[in-house]
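Narrative summary of target 7.
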Amino acid sequence: MTLAIIKPDAFGSGKAGRVLAALEDAGFRIRGSRVLRLRRAGAEAFYAVHRERPFFGALVEFMTSGPCMALALEHDRAVPYLREVIGATDPAEAAPGTVRALYAESKERNAIHGSDSDENARAELGFFFGQVDLIESA
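Modeled conformation, tokenized:
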């Protein structure tokens, strides 16, 4: 299982349904979803690994700028496959047909977050969902 977040740019522009459809069409099973608006403390905690990076402040501002949707996604190769499906961080470098190539505005407003490792996926899922919130595999 892995975490995806439909970010404020895609959610606010009405692209959440299309992003969800792309994920389901790619074979992901949705095991949890939550619409929320991150507060500053939550965004800073979630992105703490980037605290010393020059883009941290702008990232926190962006992620708190509007509602987003956290998703728990299941697939046999959930983490690496989601990374393939969403495409490169910069939509100009993303492969055609990937979520970011289709729906991202820019490298900074790139429509979707995806966990980058199994370890981070577990931690990130725990940030947004309790065990009771997730549907077990069929």
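The CA atoms of residues 35 and 82 lie 20 Å apart.
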